[in-house]
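Quick start: what a row looks like.
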Amino acid sequence: MRLEIQVNGKNIDRAIKLLKREIEKEGLFKELKNRRHYEKPSVKKRRKQREAQKRRIKTARYKRNSRNSR
């Protein structure tokens, strides 16, 4: 994977902001945070289950709100 940000003129601050946004979108910050410390397989499994549950709740809430707004 290659990530490239071009700097137009001397607008370095904008280029850094774009780079951070792209890195966040790709999930690299989250990956780095997870790899800082070893995570036991059982803990990793529980974390993934919690994250999946949060996603399910979020999508159910979104679907419920979209039906009520009609």
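That is the whole record. Residues 41-68 form the longest helix (28 residues). The mean pLDDT is 88.
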